[in-house]
C-alpha cells in the first residue's frame, strides 16, 4: 500500500498532524501501537484534559534551543485550539493560572479529534506493531505485523518514555538515530522529587500535607502548591521546578511566601511568650506542618532562644534541600529532552537532512510547564508538520 503520509502514533500531536494533512486533501494513514487513539488525552487533567493554557508563550517551554518552539506556537495558537473546541460545542472553564479544562470529560477532546479525522479522510489503524522503518530512495517503508506501507512522508509522533505502563517508548529516538539525527538525553520532567536524610525525616511524616510555596532554581520560579509525600515532595510547584532540576542541585523553597517568619516569630515572642512555637506557626502554616517544623522546639516561644527561632525561620522561608532524585519515568508527566532541535526545521518539524521525515510532540526536545502547555505544543507542532508533509 502507498499513501501520501504515514503518521506513527495516534496521540495529541499525531492526530492533529493527520487532521491538518487530511484537510489539505492528503490521505494520511495513522499507525497506532495501542488499542485506542488518544489514550493519554483520556487520562489527562484528572480525566478533564487541561487542553491548553491562555498564557502559552515560548518562555513557558524548556529546550536546549528556547527559540525553536516559537514558529509552530505562533502559527497555531491556544486561541486556534479554543476555536476548534468551541466549534464542537465542548464546554470548558479556566481553573487557575490560565489552565483550560473540559467541564465534562477528556473523552470529548478525543471524540472531537476523531470526528475531525473522519471528516478529513484520515485512516487510523490501532493495535499495529511496527517492526521496521526504512527509506528505499523514494518512499519511507514501514513494516508492521499486518504488512508493509509506503509513504512519501513519515511523521513520528510516538511521544516520550514517560508512563511506560501506558505503552510509552523511546521509539522516536531510535528512528531519529537510525536516520542520523541527534537526541538530547531524555529525562523525567514534571515529576515528584525524592529526598533523603534530615529532609526526608521532615517530609515523610508530613505525607499528604500541602502548602502554598515558592520553588526556585536559577531563573525559574513557581508559586503553587507543594505536597509532602512519603518519599519526598510533589504538587504543582515541585513538578514545575523538577523540569529544571539536575542531580546534585539544591532547590530553594519558601514555605510561607507571604510571611517574613523571622520577624513574625520575634513579634509573637514579645506578644505571646507563653504560646508554644508550633501553635504560633500554625497561624501562618498548616497545623501538621507547623508541628513537624517545630518538633525540636518544645518550650514556649518566650523561652526559645533567638538563634533557634532564626534557624527555624530560615528553614521555612529559605529551605534548600538537595533532592536525592526523581520518581523517574514511571511517575513523570512528560519527558524533557528528545529529538535534537538542531536537526529539525522549526517551521516544518522536518529533519533538515532527511526530506519528508518529521518529529512532533513530546518526542522533540521541547517541554512545557505544567498547565496545558504540553498539549499546546502537541497541537502546534502537529499542525506545523501537517501543513508541511
Ligand atoms: P502521546 O504520548 O500522547 O502519544 C504517542 C502515541 O504514540 C501513543 O498513542 C502511543 O501509544 C503511540 N506509540 C508509542 N510508541 C509507538 C510505536 N512504537 N508504534 C506505534 N505507536 C506508538 N499535558 C497537558 O498539556 N495537560 C494535561 O492535562 C496533561 N495531563 C497529563 C496527565 C498524565 C497522567 C500524563 C502522563 C501526561 C499529561 N500531560 C498533560 C502531558 C501530555 O499527555 C503529553 O505531553 C502529550 O500527550 C504528548 O502528546 P504526543 O502526541 O506527543 O504523545
UniProtKB/TrEMBL annotation:
One Pfam match: HI0933_like
Cofactor(s) required for function per UniProt: FAD
Domain RsdA/BaiN/AoA(So)-like Rossmann fold-like: residue ranges: 4-387
Domain named RsdA/BaiN/AoA(So)-like insert: residues: 187-334
Domain of life assignment: Bacteria
Keywords: FAD, Flavoprotein
Protein's name in the database: Aminoacetone oxidase family FAD-binding enzyme
Organism: Zavarzinia aquatilis
Amino acid at each position: 500500500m502507498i499513501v501520501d503520509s504515514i503518521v506513527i502514533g495516534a496521540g495529541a500531536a499525531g492526530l492533529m498532524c493527520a487532521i491538518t494533512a487530511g484537510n489539505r486533501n492528503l490521505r494520511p494513514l495513522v499507525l497506532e501501537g495501542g488499542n485506542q487513539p488518544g489514550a493519554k488525552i483520556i487520562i489527562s487533567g484528572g480525566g478533564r484534559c487541561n487542553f491548553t493554557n491562555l498564557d502559552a508563550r515560548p518562555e513557558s517551554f524548556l529546550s536546549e534551543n528556547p527559540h525553536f518552539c516559537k514558529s509552530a506556537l505562533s502559527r497555531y495558537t491556544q486561541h486556534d485550539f479554543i476555536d476548534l473546541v468551541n466549534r464542537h460545542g465542548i464546554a470548558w472553564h479556566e481553573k487557575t493560572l490560565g489552565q483550560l479544562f473540559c467541564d465534562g470529560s477528556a473523552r470529548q477532546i478525543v471524540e472531537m479529534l476523531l470526528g475531525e479525522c473522519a471528516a478529513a479522510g484520515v485512516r487510523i489503524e490501532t493495535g499495529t506493531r511496527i517492526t521496521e522503518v526504512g527509506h528505499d530512495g523514494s518512499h519511507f517503508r514501514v513494516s508492521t505485523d499486518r504488512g508493509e506501507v509506503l509513504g512519501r512522508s513519515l511523521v513520528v509522533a510516538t511521544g516520550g518514555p514517560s508512563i511506560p505502563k501506558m505503552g510509552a517508548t523511546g521509539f522516536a529516538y531510535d528512528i531519529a538515530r537510525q536516520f542520523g539525527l541527534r537526541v538530547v538525553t531524555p529525562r523525567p520532567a514534571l515529576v515528584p522529587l525524592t529526598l533523603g536524610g534530615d529532609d526526608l525525616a521532615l517530609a515523610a511524616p508530613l505525607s499528604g500535607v500541602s502548602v502554598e510555596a515558592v520553588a526556585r532554581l536559577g531563573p525559574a520560579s513557581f508559586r503553587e502548591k507543594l505536597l509532602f509525600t512519603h518519599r519526598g515532595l510533589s504538587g504543582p510547584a515541585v513538578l514545575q521546578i523538577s523540569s529544571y532540576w539536575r542531580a546534585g542541585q539544591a532547590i530553594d523553597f519558601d514555605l510561607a511566601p507571604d510571611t517574613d517568619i523571622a520577624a513574625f516569630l520575634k513579634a509573637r515572642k514579645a506578644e505571646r511568650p507563653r504560646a508554644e512555637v508550633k501553635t504560633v506557626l500554625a497561624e501562618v502554616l498548616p497545623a501538621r506542618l507547623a508541628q513537624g517544623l517545630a518538633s525540636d522546639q518544645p518550650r514556649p516561644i518566650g523561652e526559645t532562644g533567638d538563634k533557634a527561632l532564626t534557624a527555624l525561620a530560615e528553614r521555612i522561608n529559605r529551605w534548600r534541600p538537595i533532592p536525592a532524585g526523581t520518581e523517574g519515568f514511571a511517575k513523570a508527566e512528560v519527558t524533557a529532552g528528545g529529538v535534537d532541535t538542531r536537526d529539525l526545521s522549526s517551521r516544518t518539524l522536518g529533519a533538515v537532512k532527511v526530506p519528508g521525515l518529521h518529529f512532533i510532540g513530546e518526542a522533540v526536545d521541547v517541554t512545557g510547564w505544567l498547565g496545558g502547555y504540553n498539549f499546546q505544543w502537541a497541537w502546534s507542532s502537529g499542525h506545523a508538520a501537517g501543513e508541511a508533509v
